[in-house]
Design brief:
- The complex is a heterodimer of chains A (203) and B (101).
- Chain A has 203 residues and is mostly helical.
- Chain A has a single domain, classed as Ferritin, core subunit, four-helix bundle (Ferritin).
- Helices cover 58% and strands 0% of the residues of chain A.
- Chain A is built from 8 helices and no strands.
- The longest helix of chain A is centred in the last third of the chain and has 30 residues.
- The relative contact order of chain A is 0.18.
- Chain B has 2 helices and no strands.
- In chain B, helix 1 runs antiparallel to helix 2.
- Helices cover 48% and strands 0% of the residues of chain B.
- Chain B has 101 residues and is an all-alpha fold.
- Chain B has one domain.
- The chains are: A mainly alpha (203), B mainly alpha (101).
């Protein structure tokens, strides 16, 4: 279960309205490599993980991703809360405004709604952990792209914090993958799928 | 009584709590690292002390710490100043630090 803690993981105080920046940032809420996708990926994969420690790590990282999601939403909210009608007509944000006014809704920078098709939960530890490593890198790349565009230091500061967390998670998933390999056939990690081929695993 | 500053105690909480989160992930993959275990307990102690200081002066940040008799002695961000009330709903919403009561 989860409990709420009434604070952001890292403070966000943005004073300057900017719908264009909001359009970029929202992708880390509902986009292909966003925090919602990250959290759902790890919290879905953990059930079938054969190594208990890795299930625990997925729970803790999946939980941190929820806190990151809240930060992203807070950034988008603060960038658009004082929006004027003229500002809402900003190219790229205008269509979002028509459907959602200044509410927060998970979509990508290109307007594609959040979808579970953006992540996998495959029931094979090697497959799932390799996806997780890639996911952290994809999120880091997206943050790098955002940092190339955004100049407001009030936005850049929390985005840099989130970018750094992707690097840490990548490291931890790398360790989890090594731990998992220790429990598989050292000569061929892909010989069997321990989650499903339970009888074969004793051969 | 000295009025403690909301932002500075929250900064203490954020810093200690961040260390707790980061050390949690590290210890998930290095469960016997003595230095990390020591750092974890130091940071957790700092976090608990700062949380206690914050909830006494302002609103509780976790529901476990709701105590209408002890919370928010500064009567900050509340509509029920001086009245016994549900202190969980005192304080600004986390995503809206400039928000009013």
């Amino acid at each position: 279960m989860w409990n709420y803690e009434k604070r952001l993981m890292y403070p966000i105080k943005i004073t300057k309205t900017c719908p264009k920046t909001a359009q970029y940032i929202i992708t880390q809420y509902g986009g292909p490599d966003g925090e919602l996708s990250a959290s759902m990926r790890y919290l879905s994969q953990r059930y079938s993980m054969p190594c208990k420690k890795v299930g625990g790590l997925l729970t803790d990282i999946g939980t941190e991703e929820l806190a990151h999601m809240e930060m992203i939403c807070a950034i988008v909210y603060q960038l658009t809360k004082n929006l004027s009608v003229e500002e809402a007509k900003t190219a790229g944000f205008d269509a979002y405004y028509i459907d959602h006014t200044s509410a927060i809704w998970p979509q990508s920078a290109g307007g594609v709604p959040f979808t579970a098709l953006e992540f996998q939960s495959k029931g094979d530890a090697i497959t799932d952990l390799t996806e997780d490593l890639a996911a952290e890198q994809k999120a880091r790349t997206t943050y790098d792209n955002i940092l190339r565009f955004v100049t407001d230091p009030d936005v850049r500061d929390p985005i840099r914090f989130l970018r750094a967390r992707e690097v840490v998670h990548f490291q931890r998933f790398g360790e989890a993958l090594e731990k998992t390999k220790e429990n598989l056939d050292a000569k061929n990690f892909y010989y069997f799928n321990r989650e499903f081929d339970k009888k074969i695993s004793s051969i | 009584m000295k009025v403690l500053d909301r932002t500075s105690i929250l900064k203490e909480i954020n810093e200690a709590s961040f260390a707790v989160v980061d050390l949690t992930l590290y210890l998930d993959t290095h469960p016997t690292d003595k230095d990390a275990l020591n750092m974890f307990s130091n940071c957790m102690e700092k976090r608990k002390k700062a949380m206690k200081k914050y909830e006494t002066q302002f609103e509780p940040l976790v529901v476990d710490c709701v105590d209408p008799a002890e919370n928010n002695v500064s009567n900050s961000f509340t509509n029920y100043s001086g009245e016994t009330h549900w202190t969980w709903s005192d304080g600004p919403l986390p995503w809206d630090p400039f928000g009013s009561d």
